[in-house]
């Protein structure tokens, strides 16, 4: 993952105050067809028994598990209404263009604002081309999809907002840095060449993030809701963390053109989001540990996603959340306890003797480390793995169809623990340090 706390903050600051910054160097710059569904599928009604993956936000579960069921039911209804608006917009576009089928957007592996995109770069025609394409791919709901090549130019009539298929899916999402990254790009582009369209699109994106937030403060991977594991509270790939960072920036006047009322909503959303992160931290035998990749939206217990992403605690996302929480002020006792517990868990599950890379996999290397598995079994802290058949394995060497091409191991906790040690020293040295108070409380 890109460091979202260092060079990126410097880039934003330099762009907004009008200086050119010399920052070190990643650029982000088969259509199929399908008939657009006339009516989007509705969430399952009470008494229905669809597949398990469709049950997360059913009426039955909401009424059984939610402390505030009417608020959740209203949220689901808002999602259904927004999806109807989105699909109706595309249907009208297809009719106007004399087409009956969407085509997929051009594919790109990823889209990120990177270190090459300094103030001078944002003044180029290339930056302007990408900005125009980003505007055109903003969905009616205000968000963006993922894996879209903006270098290919603006969206064409009847073209989907998503690239991997022309199915009505992933419209819109916070997965893979989507929506938050397009918003960041537009802010930086506007700081170089003021454009009210950039500002309006950013504000619509901010409204999207606020609208997508669960009543408990977390976020689904996709909104309007898509069903299956996409409706889970999603920490995977830093989706929730990226959203919280975006809301916090907006709440503190970055960018400055955010209206006061929306700034206040962003602040409230960020506060509720942090509370949900704290509420979702997993307890094992009464002891706080870390987080999963995704959590049940109602119970906030870890849950599974794709067939090879089993219910687990995850080192990579927990490391990112630890780094995020370390930056929060004020340092309350609740926050400090969460930070301390996550750090202690990461220390307890570190591994030695391996190296790992995405392309060639794991290699035995005596003395190497520390390194962490992506997923750990809850309760035993044993690293776990799975092929697409969903069978739990305890040995990476037994993997077959998912052996490569997935981040089964991570080095992310190295930096997180380094920052934690500095944070712990600062807070312990204070006369009434929170860490010292926690130790006294726990004795």
List keywords for this structure.
443 residues, mainly alpha, three-stranded antiparallel sheet, two-stranded antiparallel ribbon, 13 helices, 13 strands, globular, disordered C terminus
Characterization of this structure:
The protein has 443 residues and is mostly helical. The protein is built from 13 helices and 13 strands. Strands 3-6-7 form a three-stranded antiparallel sheet, with no helix packed on it. It has a two-stranded antiparallel ribbon with strand order 1-2. Strands 4-5 form a two-stranded antiparallel ribbon. The two termini are 38 Å apart. The C terminus is likely disordered.
Quick summary:
With 443 residues, the protein is mainly α. Helix content is 41%, strand content 7%.
